[in-house]
Amino acid sequence: MNKKLFFIVLLMGLACPKMNAQVEDFEIGVKFGFNLAGIRGDEVDDLDSRSSIHIGLAAEIPINEYIGFQPELLYSFQGFSAESLEPNFEEENFKFDYIYLPLMIKYYPFYVVPGFSLEAGPQIGFLTSAILERKNVFEGGVTETSDIDFKEFTSDVDVAINLGLGYQLEMGAFFQARYNLGVTDIIELDGIEISRQYSVFQFSTGIKF
Predict the structure, then answer these.
(1) Whole-model pTM?
(2) DSSP secondary structure of the chain
(3) CA gap 87, 156 in Å, rounded
């Protein structure tokens, strides 16, 4: 049964050479999507993910029938939250924003699903903003939100390895699911060694022209 299914899929692929496995010319477009940014490393059990978004540009350069190169320029909102260890404070939100440059290699398994791709590649990010948002709790239940610039305690650069899946329609619309495995420590505290890296799931959609 499995052999019959294999030959049916193969014949369908051979019979449909006009169905694009990938783009044939240079394309560029826009993309946006959802981030679920978690943290790996030391003492992370009490840290919660920050749900946020990313937005930017994506291009694709065809290399051959099966492989394409997709550079991107993204603005991404990331970070995490934790319960405060100080009295009279509630949850603390660490809001970190980055400009990222993903460099993705895309492989199109031509005869399986036209337009479907496997993606992998590195990315480098540059910190643009790091804010620690805290809520002070006063007597009588009154709360006040205060923002602290946390940039001096945050690494200016974040490097990650990306793995993902993609699907692009002939009209140029595309969908992506990606995992970012951070390899650099994002927190830098003088005299304190702490290992914390990003672990981010991204779900994106967009269109190329």
Answers:
(1) 0.82
(2) -HHHHHHHHHHHHHH-TTS-SS-SS-EEEEEEEEEEEEEEETT-TTEEEEEEEEEEEEEEEE-SSSEEEEEEEEEEEEEEEEE-SSTTB-EEEEEEEEEEEEEEEEE--TTTSTTEEEEEEEEEEEEEEEEEEEEEE-TTS-EEEEEEE-GGGB-SEEEEEEEEEEEE-TTSEEEEEEEEEE-S--B-BTTB---EEEEEEEEEEEEE-
(3) 30
Judge contact between 205 and 176, C-beta under 8 A: yes
pLDDT tens profile 125-176 = 999 999 998 877 666 555 667 788 999 999 999 999 999 999 999 899 999 9
Whole-number Å distance between alpha carbons of 122 and 166: 16
Which tokens is 139 given?
Answer: 């007597």
Judge whether 191 and 204 are in contact, CB under 8 Å. no
Nearest to 55 by CA among 174, 205, 208, 209: 205
